[in-house]
Every structure is written in structure tokens, then in C-alpha cells.
Design brief:
Layout lengths: L1 H11 L20 H5 L3 H18 L25 H18 L6 H14 L1 H4 L1 H8 L6 H9 L11 H6 L5 H10 L1 H12 L8 H17 L5 H14 L7 H18 L4 H21 L4 H16 L7 H7 L5 H11 L3 H15 L3 H13 L6 H19 L2 H17 L1 H18 L1 H11 L11 H8 L4 H9 L3 H10 L1 H14 L5 H8 L4 H4 L2 H20 L6 H16 L7 H10 L10 H13 L13 H16 L9 H10 L1
Length: about 650
């Protein structure tokens, strides 16, 4: 607009002393120049008004120009004789109109209105750049060629369009891109054409065209310097404004350009921080305003790309505060982790969440949710180290009990999902702290063993860490020292903590060390702690393990294995109903042990006694069978098998029938 005003002032400075004559030709976009010279202004205005009515029916914002640029009073205007202020007002109105018109430039109705603006307001002279920008998104059309043939580009930045005027051929986009590389002024004016649209929302064709040129321009450069970034940045920032007037197309273009910049140039820390914050705000707004998370996902992807490719060492608290407001952040991250490399972003984001979780409820909740939903196996060591050291620092500064409690809860969540990795990480970190400072080591141990002074409560962290300790004697001691009655009282008061202890005990029934398994089986009221279905599954696994050990012929530890198997059977048969599915399951567990052999005679006799007491058809004939018969029959089976008189195995029903015939 400034350039247009200067041109007008220059024309006004030259007095018009020539008598006015009817011209032989007139500039026109609709008619042949000679034909246009014979058409009266009133006719051109009526043509324009008919076109304007069509545009108004499509877009109501055109209506305000009906009594302005296209009023009947405008027929008497002569821009050459107008004052500066009046020309400023007209320029502003023409500028906004052409911006709005750019979205509908290909319509014949749009060209009808342009015809009047060219005749009455001489926009091809006074508003040359605005007219070119209005038509430029349609550079590959013959209408654009007509516009270029109307203007005199002189020595301006648009001089490269003279080739279009001469050849009459549409302009390929690559020529615009190449000219932008030669003259950054072209790039800047395209960026500003969108971002300076204060009153008019940039149209889709304009946004799409500018985005394509900028993207191809950046992609063609081998190196991108700070001057290029400075010119492109306003376009990007405009697209990232929440509720941007550029709409989805502008936002999409901004995300594409950011990703390309992140890949091709090292941006300054200030710019990176600003873009990360803008992307976070856009993602939050998308998540809040739409049920479709696709836009939020795209914004988050771009943010992650920026962090992955740029020099980012920390995610500041203000940005974390924005991201934690996205309720679906855990779900989105769990999806993105499977599709893209997010390691650096996740590491930094988790560091920040751990840092602030000790005193920020939302950060704490977000961290727990991410631990639950996002695959973090490779980050366990980092999280545990950061967690323990952050909690240690806070405890040393202000002795906050809350920091220790939250640390424990986060560790428990990690242990649930990544048992081995978490256990190793905790112990390694504790050892490192111990080597560094004995005082720090004692603080951490006290933190992990918090609430031990409360006789009516059980510290879930204490139980977890003790039961998951690498040393079997520690796990065994934890079980032997467990206050079962206190645990059962805890069930009603705190079901979540009770469930945590339940899980720990259930895992110990499958412990690699049999002395730990025995300690778990010896717990008072075990069936009250763990539900019957889970108990039966655990007992079945333990008994199968016992059978495998006993059948291997190993004598070492056989007594312990027999004790464990016996304890399992006793637990399974305790409070056995007269009939039902439970009886069948227990009978199945007992069956492998009713054949008596010398090494396991104590177990076999007990199993036989249990089988006799069960009201199950399969065992109905065992009531009258003496243990001696079973011993004799077992010996007979072994002897026959040895001499190939019987197959190595014999069906259970046949064995029981044979017992009754002895």
C-alpha cells in the first residue's frame, strides 16, 4: 500500500494540462482494449454490480463493498485529483477487497467486479502489487496472464513477470520459487500477504499457494540462513495461533514448514522454545475443542519432531503445564511411540514430569498415566534414577513426606509393569547413592520404608521393595514378617494398596526360589488374601513344578518339594464343598500324587487320604483301598513296566479298577 501511495503522489505532482480526449483503447480484463474504449462507465458499473450480487450470494462479506467501492457515487471519483487521506481510505478498501476476492478469483463474477476497479480506480496502476498478489495463486491460468499484461512492473520485484506478458503463457510455480531464491523480497511479501490479513481471513487458495511456495523454497535450499528463517517465521507463527483465521489449511502449512525447518537448520534456542510452546498450545486447544484427536496428534507429532532434531536439553515447566492439560496425552504418546522415534522427547518429558511430580498433582497424575499406558521399558533406569535423586534433593531441602510417598507410588507403578528392570534399577541407584554418601543412602532407605511406625497400616512401598528384592532371603523375610490380619483390615480402608500387596504375594507363589514359595504358602489366611480362582491357578503351577522336580530323580531338596506340594494340596482342599467344579479341580490336582513311591510316601499317603474324602465319582472306589494295596500296586506297575509287561503309563481309571481287584 505504501508503494501504491507513492506512485499516486508522483502522478499528482505532475499537472494535467492536456485536454481530455476519448482514448482509442482502455485497459480491460473482460474485453478487447479497443472494444473496452467504447463501453461507458455506467455499463461497466452495472456489469460489476451483477457480478457483486453473485459474490454476495456466496460470501456475505462482499456486501459491505456495495455502497463503497461499487456505489453509484463512485462514478464521479478521479483518483488523480483526490487528496492523500482519501486515497489512503480507498487503498485500504481496495486492499481488503482484493484479499477477499482472491478466494473467488476464477469466477466470472469476480472478473466483472475487477473490470470496474480497473476502469474507475486504476488498480492496475495504483494497486499493482495488491492486484498481482490477488491473482498469483492462479498463476497457471490465462486469467493471470491477462492481469500481468495490464500492469507495468517497471523495475520492481515483479519484473520477472515480463516474460509472462511477452509469451502469453501461464507461469509455472517453480519459476516463482526460483525467483524467491534470487530475491527474498518475493518470499517475504508472500508470507506477509497471509499474516497481514487483519480483517480478512486468508482464503484457501491463497494459503495453499503460499504454503507450497515456501515449502518448495525451503526444500530447494542446501543451507537455510537466519534471514530466511526471519522471513518465514511470521507465516508459521500466524498458523499456530489458537483459532487462527487461516484455519486448518494455515495450521497444516505451519506444521509442515516447522518439520522441514527442524530437519534442515539449527534454529536458535529462543525460536525453538517459542515454537515448542506454540505447538503445545495448539495441541491443547485441538484436544479441548474437538472430539477428533487427529489435529492434536499432528501438532504433537510436530512438537516431538522439533525436540528430536533440535538442540533441546529440557522441557520447561510452562510447556509441561500445557501438555499435562491434554487429557489424552498418554493415549496419543502410546500410539506415536509405536510409529515414530520419540526417544529424546520422551526422555526429556519424563525428566520434567518426575521433577515436578513431587509437588504438582497434575504432573504426578500424568506421569502415572504415562507409566501405565506408554511402553517405557528402555526408560526405566532413567526414570528411577531421576526419581530417587529428585526426591532425595527435596527431602534434604525441606524434609517433605509427600515427596517420599509419591516417589514410592511411582516406583510401585513401574514395578507392576517392568518388574525385573525396575528392581535392578532401584538397587543399582541405591548402591550408587550409598557409594556417594552414607547420609543420602540412609535418607533414601527411610523414604522407601516410610510409614513403618504406623502399627495399623502396611507400607505398600516397604512390602513391594522387600518382596521384589534380588536376594531370596530378603523376599522370604518380607513374607514371614507380613502382618496378614492388618492386611485384611486394610482391604476395606484402602483397596488399591491391598490389591498391590495381593499382586506381590501372588508373584511370590511363582518365585524362582522354593523357600520363598514355601513362605508364601505358610501365610496365615492365604485363601482370604487371594481369591479362589487365582489361588487354584497358582497351586496348579506350583504342583506341576514339584512333579517335574520329583520325576527328575534329584534327591537334593526333595523334602522341601514334598512339603511345598503337601501345603498346596492342603490349601486347595481346605473348606472343600461336597460337589461342584471346585471339587473337580482339586481332585485333578491330587491325582498325580496318589501313587505311592518310597521317596514321596508321606505326600502320597496324604494325597490318597484326601482323595478318599472327596465326593467325586472318579475316587468312589478308593474308600475301601488300604495304603498297602496302593504301595503293592505301585510296585507291581514299576515291575511290570520294567519287564515290558505294561506300557510305561497306565490310565488312571484302569489303575483304580486294578486297585479294587487286588
Amino acid at each position: 500500500m505504501v508503494t501504491s501511495l507513492v506512485a499516486q503522489l508522483q502522478r499528482l505532482a505532475v499537472p494535467d494540462t492536456e485536454p481530455r480526449k476519448r482514448p482509442f483503447t482502455r485497459p480491460s480484463i473482460l474485453f478487447d482494449p479497443k472494444e473496452a474504449a467504447d463501453i461507458e462507465l455506467d455499463t461497466i458499473l452495472n456489469i460489476a454490480l451483477s457480478g457483486l450480487e453473485v459474490l454476495i450470494s456466496i460470501e456475505a462479506r462482499f456486501n459491505k463493498y456495495k455502497n463503497d467501492l461499487f456505489s453509484y457515487g463512485s462514478r464521479e471519483l478521479d483518483r488523480d485529483l483526490m487528496g492523500i487521506e482519501e486515497n489512503k481510505r480507498i487503498n485500504a478498501s481496495i486492499y481488503s477487497y482484493l484479499q477477499l476476492l482472491s478466494g473467488y478469483f476464477e469466477l466470472s463474477a469476480a472478473l466483472k467486479t475487477l473490470e470496474y476497479l480497473i476502469r474507475r480506480y486504476k488498480i492496475h496502476i495504483y494497486n499493482m502489487e495488491e492486484l498481482i498478489l490477488c491473482a498469483l495463486p492462479y498463476h497457471d491460468t490465462h486469467v493471470f496472464v491477462r492481469v500481468v499484461q495490464l500492469v507495468d512492473t517497471g523495475n520492481s520485484k515483479w519484473k520477472f513477470l515480463e516474460g509472462v506478458k511477452t509469451s502469453g503463457a501461464p507461469l509455472p510455480r517453480k519459476v516463482i520459487v526460483q525467483q524467491s531464491m534470487r530475491d527474498l523480497g518475493i518470499l517475504e511479501v508472500l508470507c506477509n500477504y497471509v499474516t497481514n490479513s487483519k480483517k480478512v481471513q486468508p482464503s484457501r487458495p491463497v494459503t495453499g499457494f503460499c504454503t507450497a511456495v515456501i515449502f518448495e523454497f525451503l526444500g530447494s535450499l542446501t543451507t537455510i540462513d537466519s534471514e530466511v528463517v526471519r522471513r518465514v517465521l511470521p507465516f508459521v507463527e500466524f498458523g499456530l495461533q489458537p483459532g487462527s483465521r487461516g484455519g486448518a489449511d494455515q495450521k497444516s502449512g505451519a506444521l509442515m514448514i516447522i518439520s522441514l525447518l527442524a530437519d534442515k537448520v539449527a534454529l536458535s534456542p529462543k525460536i525453538v522454545k517459542s515454537l515448542i510452546r506454540s505447538l503445545a498450545e495448539v495441541a491443547r486447544a485441538d484436544a479441548r475443542d474437538s472430539t477428533d484427536l487427529q489435529w492434536c496428534r499432528m501438532s504433537l507429532m510436530t512438537l516431538i519432531t522439533l525436540v528430536q532434531l533440535q538442540s533441546v536439553e529440557i522441557i520447561p515447566k510452562k510447556i509441561v503445564d500445557i501438555l499435562k492439560d491434554i487429557r489424552e496425552i498418554s493415549q496419543l504418546l502410546s500410539e506415536l511411540v509405536d510409529e515414530f522415534n520419540t526417544d529424546k522427547f520422551l526422555a526429556l518429558f519424563l525428566d520434567s514430569l518426575v521433577e515436578y511430580s513431587c509437588y504438582d498433582d497434575l504432573c504426578y497424575g500424568t506421569l502415572l498415566s504415562i507409566v501405565e499406558m506408554v511402553p517405557l521399558k528402555d526408560f526405566v533406569v532413567r526414570i528411577v534414577s531421576k526419581l530417587l535423586n529428585t526426591s532425595l534433593r527435596i527431602l534434604k531441602d525441606n524434609d517433605s513426606a509427600g515427596a517420599g510417598s509419591r516417589c514410592n507410588q511411582i516406583l510401585v507403578s513401574l514395578l507392576k509393569k517392568y518388574l525385573f528392570e525396575s528392581r535392578e534399577a532401584v538397587n543399582r541407584c541405591i548402591e550408587d547413592i550409598k557409594l556417594r554418601s552414607k547420609n543420602d543412602y540412609e535418607i533414601v532407605i527411610r523414604m522407601l520404608n516410610c510409614n513403618l511406625d504406623l502399627s495399623h497400616e502396611i507400607s505398600n512401598s516397604k512390602v513391594w521393595f522387600a518382596m521384589e528384592h534380588p536376594k531370596a532371603e530378603v523376599r522370604r523375610s518380607a513374607l514371614l514378617g507380613l502382618d496378614v490380619r492388618g492386611m485384611l483390615n486394610l482391604e476395606a480402608a484402602d483397596s488399591q494398596r491391598f490389591g498391590t500387596i495381593q499382586d506381590a504375594i501372588l508373584r511370590r507363589l511363582g518365585d524362582e526360589d522354593l523357600t520363598v514359595v514355601q513362605a508364601a504358602l505358610n501365610l496365615e489366611a492365604l485363601p482370604e488374601i487371594i481369591s479362589a480362582p487365582l489361588c487354584m491357578d497358582a497351586f496348579r503351577n506350583v504342583l506341576q513344578r514339584c512333579i517335574k522336580i520329583l520325576s527328575s530323580g534329584a534327591s537334593r531338596g526333595a523334602s522341601l518339594v514334598v512339603d511345598i506340594a503337601l501345603s498346596c494340596l492342603q490349601h486347595a482342599a481346605a473348606g472343600l464343598p461336597d460337589e461342584g467344579e471346585h471339587v473337580k479341580m482339586v481332585a485333578t490336582l491330587v491325582f498325580p500324587f496318589i501313587i505311592i513311591i518310597p521317596k514321596t510316601q508321606r505326600l502320597n499317603l496324604k494325597a490318597l487320604e484326601m482323595a478318599k474324602q472327596m465326593k467325586w465319582p472318579f475316587y468312589e472306589n478308593l474308600v475301601s483301598v488300604s495304603p498297602d494295596k496302593v504301595i503293592f500296586m505301585a510296585g507291581l506297575m514299576l515291575w511290570c513296566s520294567y519287564y515290558s509287561c505294561l506300557p510305561p503309563s497306565i490310565p488312571g481309571r484302569a489303575f483304580l479298577d486294578a486297585l479294587n481287584k487286588v
